[in-house]
Design goal:
single chain; alpha/beta; Rossmann fold; 10-stranded mixed beta sheet; 11 helices; about 20% strand
């Protein structure tokens, strides 16, 4: 897997600091640059027609930029030897600016902290789900501080769909780079009438259509009320270092009607999650 640029959005929170450890680990692995991004949402939200005039807004923007520049400079200076960092400060809506910056600088991965569904006041955390759906590259989200010295055990949820198979090439390439042992898990939800034999047959057909040579892996079936809950429970129970999964990238009514397992996992998993879009989806998005 080729990663030359990693976009790291930060709001300077503890959650962002925890994510930075994974960003540094990944940058060192791939010899990639870290592109730090701070989005000034305060200036964007203030209406110049309200109690603040243009001069006040310019002053506020200058103050925020100065603050962000200093914080980013301090962070970059503390980076591990050999990791190169650059800074970007922009004004706007965080999720939009993060996705647009990723496109503009041709980022190969976004790594960011998220506070999950409960992060009402979190600038970065509350935007994670939108970013995962719309980003042009893989996205790693981290909800809490963990040991980021290694990524050895990876959980890959599968549903045997074409979209899942299309993302497996990227996921396996990522796993090979870190020499991960893989657990491929299928979650059987309570309303489905499935047998272990039928699921094992599905696994055999699925694996026969992907290249997983040279990788240590095992397959597993778990039962749960929802796919997301089963994935998270399996990750915690098996001491997984990272969950890697595909995303449909759905928006609007289609997403509401069909739901999103990826969003449930991103919002609730205590284990870092890396999401990958299928090659077909990326081609559609770029056309």
């Amino acid at each position: 897997m080729k990663i030359d640029k990693i976009l790291f959005p930060t709001d300077f929170s503890d959650c962002a600091d925890a994510a930075l450890e994974y960003a540094v680990l990944t940058a060192k692995k791939y010899k990639a640059s870290l592109e730090f991004l701070y989005v000034d949402e305060a200036t964007y939200l203030l209406n110049p027609m309200g109690p603040y005039g243009d001069n006040d807004l310019h002053q506020l923007s200058d103050n925020v930029t100065s603050y962000a520049d200093k914080k980013l400079d301090d962070t970059i200076q503390r980076l591990h030897h050999g990791v190169v960092g650059h800074k970007h400060v922009v004004i706007g809506r965080p999720y939009y600016q993060i996705v647009e910056t990723a496109r503009n600088i041709k980022a190969d991965m976004i790594i960011m902290g998220t506070h999950g569904e409960s992060g009402i006041n979190a600038i970065i955390g509350s935007n994670a789900e939108r970013i995962v759906r719309q980003a042009p590259c893989p996205v790693m989200t981290i909800r809490q501080k963990r040991d980021a010295n290694h990524i050895c055990r990876m959980l890959i949820p599968v549903d045997f769909s074409d979209m899942c198979r299309q993302t497996m090439k990227q996921i396996i390439a990522y796993a090979r780079d870190f020499a991960c042992e893989l657990t491929l898990v299928y979650v059987s939800v309570s309303h489905k009438n499935e047998t272990e034999k039928s699921i094992q047959d599905d696994f055999e057909r699925f694996l026969s259509r992907i290249d997983i040579t040279g990788v240590i892996y095992r397959t597993m079936m778990v039962k749960a009320h929802t796919e997301g809950a089963g994935i998270i429970e399996c990750a915690v129970k098996n001491e997984i270092d990272v969950i890697a999964m595909g995303t449909h990238g759905r928006t609007g009514l289609k997403r509401v009607l069909m739901g999103s397992v990826t969003s449930e996992v991103v919002n609730n998993s205590p284990v870092p999650v890396v999401t990958f879009r299928s090659v077909k989806q990326n081609n559609v998005q770029h056309n």
